[in-house]
Every structure is written in C-alpha cells, then in structure tokens.
C-alpha cells in the first residue's frame, strides 16, 4: 500500500486528495509555489515543500523540481490531480524512473490517448463507434480534403494533439476547406509545436456525454455511468450533471459496455473517462479519452456512492477494485456548478483578489469542494475555478431546485464571480426542461456573454 503520497497540484483537487488520504491513513506531502504559501492545500497536508515562484511553468509544471521534492520527502507515489502534469507522459515516465508510483495509467497509454488521431485509430480497430472521418492524420491540406470529400460536409478539422477546442475549425463547404485547414493548422503549430491534423464529420449540436471508468491491474474494468457536460462556454465546462436525462437505461448499458471495451482496447489502468458525442437520434460516437481524474468526478461519486480518489489510490497500490459492475447502481440525480473568479460583464475576464466575505450553503445533498476561505487571496497565476458546488437529490427536478437554493445561499464577496450567471442558467426554461446541447450558452447568451450581452 502507498505510505506517503505527494500531490503534484494545488487548490480544491489537492485538498480533495488530502482528505481521501487522511481517511485511508496515507501520509501527504503538498508542493506549493511562492504564491500558495497560505493556500489550504499547503496548510492541510502533513508536510509541505516549496517548489518555486508563482508562475505555473516555474512550479506546478516543473517536473525536475517536483520529483526532487518527492525523493527528498520520501514519497512513494505521486497524484497529479487534473491540469498541470496530469496527462504528461514524460512526467509519468520520470516518476517510474525514480521508483515512484504515478497515480494514473502507464506513460505509453497517456501518450497514445493524448494523440487524438491515434486514439481514434485504436478505437476504430477495436470496433468502437467513432465519428466518421480520417483513418490517418494529415499534415497536407490535400490529404485532409480527400477525406472531407469522402465523408461529406460539414466536417470539423482537429489537431491530433488537441482537445479542449484549440486548433479546431468547422468547414461547411468544400471551397472553404483549404483556408480553414490552414487556420486550424497554424493554431495547432503555435499551441502544440505539431502540424498533424485529422478530419471528422461535424455533428450538429450534439450532447457531450462522458463515461467514467475504473480499471485495476488485475484486468477488472467497470463503468460508473455517464455525465452530461453539454453546458460549456468556449470549451470550458460550466455545469455538469449525472445521469444524462436523454439516455434510456438500454442506451446507458450499450454506451457503458462500449466505454469498458474502449478502456480495455487502450490497455487502461486507473480512473479514466471516455468522451462521446450523442446526437438527437441517439447515435453515439467516441471522440476522446481523458487519462486523468476530472473536475466533475464529484457528481459521479454523488450518484454511485463510490469515492473515485480512494479507488485511484487502491488501484495504484495494486489492490483490486472495491466494486463489481453488478454492484454499481445510479441513485438520484446530481448537478455541479463551477464557480469561477471571473467577470461575466467583462467577457469572463479572470478576476483575482481578496475574498472579504464568504458563506457556504449546506444541508442534505449539498457538497462544496473548494480551497478558498474568508480572507483568502486568489492568486493571478492559475485557473480561475475557485469552487465546485455539487447537489444531489432524488430526481432531476429536485436537483435543479436544490441547486437554485444552494446558489442563492452562496455568498462570495470581494471578487467578481460567475455565480449570478450560473443562477440565470439554472432558472432558464430550456435548462429546467433538459433541452441542452453544446450550443446552449451561445444560443441563450449573445456571444456567450453575461447579462450585458443577453439576447
Ligand atoms: C466535435 C463536435 C462536432 N462534431 N466533433 C469540442 C471540444 C472537443 N473535446 C470536441 N469538441 C467538439 N467536437 C465532431 N465530429 C463538436 C464539438 C464541440 C464544439 C465544436 C466547435 C465549437 C464549439 C463546440 C462546443 C462543444 C463541442
């Protein structure tokens, strides 16, 4: 069993991991930047070690510094959380070379799934339904155009190393292909230092539905149902829910079984997510696999009762999964709202600063994952997400009502947040009725803006 875990992250996910370790009797080491000396993860861990100045590239992305800290502090495992180094295969490999267990899949799997064109190929060969599109990545527009003409328009050109919306262009007519391909490719080169692209049929306004899976090193693979993550703004998720209200029990079984087969085809170990697009006709297509614990894991925990971080630590320790597929049941409905330190009135610009007054909602079925406290200074260097509000109730309608009530009780003063924007979404007719897809924010708010830009 892991004795001492170094958490290569900050903020609420570092706190979430520390809590799981405390319950499991695992000692914790926090790493922190100069800007995080007073952060909750630094204060809560058993031990803490400074790894550099505020900017991420000098601290939370500094692999040598983090591994030196792990060696010096005698940690036997590293949990990368999400973001930062969580999907960096080189970091995972370096951990192995230092005889430190990386809490996640093998470096080869991280790298294979990190290349979305290669992931497509792996899944196609395993008989997993993928969006019609490229069999091979293309670096020349002519090769991409041949694929596009074959599948038919509209198509979407994507970066092989992309994900998260960078290096992506929708092409509606053949005449635009060459210029759109080059635009996507230029963005890809500057963001990833790579020019490898692929083409897919463009699915109009799908739902983004992802399945949580767990795989141990003994060959057991299970799925924990799905999350609907369709409410996004500029590829940043805002609200997630579990289960997806557009999926029947029969479809859930088919998609879940597909997700398990996908994880097996990838040679997967630990917690992972299989992303699908779901169209109006109920067709689903694999798009990507995420090889990390995700921000929205808490809603899956709420409806399954399974602690995903504890499962990750069990798996990394070589233990079998604590659950079998037939024991996993989805109970009720959970919703998560991401609260960000940003100003919806100023195009969602990040707004760091000091929190001068803070009040959390509570009650039955309300969970807050956060690392902020009254008087805390939100540093300017990192992601603007400061709090996740998760509610769980017997059904979707009850969960929506509980979320409205909880958002109404939540008080964060001193900094701008998207709290009111979230409340507005929760009160909209289409959200209430479950009429959501990936175009929701664009179609309900002009240019994805807040009240200032309302249609
Ligand atoms: C798509 C798609 C439609 N068809 N792929 C966006 C993020 C990345 N994880 C995958 N994404 C999409 N992939 C196919 N074949 C729609 C999206 C998508 C999207 C695309 C362009 C502009 C905004 C979008 C918002 C959500 C999803």
Report on the architecture of this protein.
The chain is an alpha+beta fold. Helix content is 33%, strand content 25%. The protein has 15 helices and 22 strands. It has helices spanning 11-24, 40-44, 63-72, 89-97, 107-114, 116-125, 141-151, 177-192, 249-266, 297-304, 308-316, 396-409, 419-427, 429-432, 440-444, and strands at 4-7, 27-33, 47-52, 77-79, 101-102, 155-159, 169-171, 197-201, 207-215, 221-233, 236-242, 270-278, 284-290, 333-340, 342-343, 349-350, 353-354, 357-359, 366-370, 377-378, 385-393, 411-413. It is globular. The structure holds ligand MV4. Ligand MV4 binds next to strand 8 and strand 13.
Major beta-sheet overview:
8 strands, antiparallel
| Count of strand segments | 22
Q: SS-based structural class?
A: alpha+beta
What proportion strand? Answer: 25-35%
Outline: globular
Present as ligands are:
ligand MV4
Strand order of the largest sheet: 13-12-9-10-11-14-21-19
**DSSP helix fraction:** 25-40%
Radius of gyration: 21 Å
What is the arithmetic mean of pLDDT?
96
Beginning-to-end CA distance, first to last residue? 55 Å
Number of continuous helical runs: 15
Low-confidence stretches: 450-455
